[in-house]
Amino acid sequence: MSAVTGSSPDPSTAPRLRRLIVAGVDHQTAGQGLRDRLFVEQPALPDFYRHLAAAGFDQAVLLSTCDRVVVVGMSDAPDAAAAAIRRTLAETAGMPEQNIEGSFFIRTGTDALGHLFSIAASLESQVLGEPEVLGQIKTAHRGAEGATGVGRELGAIFEAAYSVAKRVRNETAIGEHAISMAAAACQVAREVVGRFEQTTALVVGAGELGVLVADKLKAQGLTDIWMADPLEPRAEAMAARLGAHRLAMEEIGRSLHRMDMVLTGLGGAVPVITRDDVAQALKQRRYKPIFLLDAAVPADVEPDVAALDEAYLFTLHDLERIALTGQEKRSHAAIDARAIVEDEVASFVLAEGYRAAAPMVTALRQRFEAHRQQILASNPTMSADEATRLLVNRLLHGPSQALRELAADGDGGARSVPLDGDLIARLFGLAADADDGSSPGAEKGRE
Questions:
Q1: Exactly one of 66, 154, 160, 183 is catalytic; which is it?
Q2: pLDDT band for position 426 (50/70/90)?
Q3: For residue 126, which of 235, 226, 232, 206 has the smallest C-alpha distance?
Q4: Nearest of 159, 264, 140, 171 to residue 132 by alpha carbon
Q5: 36 and 146 assigned to the same domain
Q6: Is residue 5 part of a domain?
Q7: Candidate ranges 218-222, 301-305, 331-335; pick with highest mean pLDDT
Q8: Is pLDDT above 60 for 98?
């Protein structure tokens, strides 16, 4: 009889989606100042992952960028996991945990999956459709694999996120229209300063739009770029990426006269560039024009700079107005992109259901086949009618006995386990049989 019993799947094994959590802060919940303080620098990553491992995370990826500092991980206890993430972020930043409670968000299950897919598809970025985020996610994924090992569960979820991002790029125009904003900036910049080969640009902060514009300017001939950022590791990384020189934040004011273009995207508590800074720079430049793009919220450049002659200050609002057609198309593309994300989340959930059911289906097939083989081996001369009748009786014996026990009035009319008739009918097609009159005894009932 041991062959009939076989091996059954572990019913306590939950699908991986139930264990998924995304928690941290992003540009929608926290200001630039808090995000900067929580930013985890590269040398601190091993310790950060060790703290998460000690808190029970065997699979986790930290996404630490300008827009967000969030952990994507797997846990059987989401609330405890979120608390561990919040505590680890606070400890790494050297701040009290309560300082981030109001900005900290938690997503679990399908909500977490949809959020990760949306991040990868650049639907959660400050600049909708910017192409940098997917590379940042892949870099973080590789870094986590090197530090702790991501695991098959989380690895499969990240691979699915990459597929979603690729589909959004291929099937919508969201990437093109996000860059149209950068194209508008380049167009206005050329009108102000002329040829880019003969100009110098300063990028303050590693915001997406400033980097996009710098990339586009480089493609059009700009070579003299300077980079400044309050966080040294981020400044170094962006300077290396742009092929830029480094400039300390405190040197911006006295170096402004050398800059033909300034692209800012910090969004700190106070402006980085004041009216007096620009006025002094223009005087030193003998009033040669300066193009300033302030892509930060709140502003990095004092608004009354725009009143200075030969200071051409543009904000995100100005660029959006210039690229109004692109903005409208970008919004339409985002609708299509979000529909793709929803479709991919539904497909992933459905596939998870199939994956979770597969061991049970396999076990049932093995059990039924074992019964069939036993009957054939024990009764080699039995007719097909007798063999199939015996097989049906054996297959139904265990379920029939279990159903009787579940349905029995064993304790004052209360069943310890509920009997789900709808589920049983669905599993065995009983409702369909009743509808089409094909159930056993249907013909007899009509007589």
A1: 66
A2: low
A3: 206
A4: 140
A5: yes
A6: no
A7: 301-305
A8: yes
Q: What is the pTM of this model?
A: 0.59
Count structural domains, the chain.
2
CATH number at residue 149: 3.30.460.30
Pair 191, 133 in one domain: no
Q: Report yes or no on 11 lying in a domain.
A: no
| Mean pLDDT, residues 171-182 taken together | 73
Q: Has residue 441 got a pLDDT over 90?
A: no
**Which residue range forms the structural domain that includes residue 156?**
16-171+332-352
Our answer to whether residue 186 is catalytic in this structure is: no
Q: Quick check: is 298 in a domain?
A: yes
Q: What pLDDT does residue 357 have?
A: 64
Mean pLDDT of the chain: 82
Residues 54 and 164 in one domain: yes
The per-residue pLDDT for 355 is: 67
Residues 211 and 298 in one domain: yes
Phi, psi angles (nearest 5°) of residue 14? -90, 145
**Could you read off the pLDDT of 397-410 as tens digits, one per residue?**
777 777 776 666 54
187 and 163: one domain? no
End-to-end CA distance of the chain: 43
Q: In terms of domains, do 24 and 157 share one?
A: yes
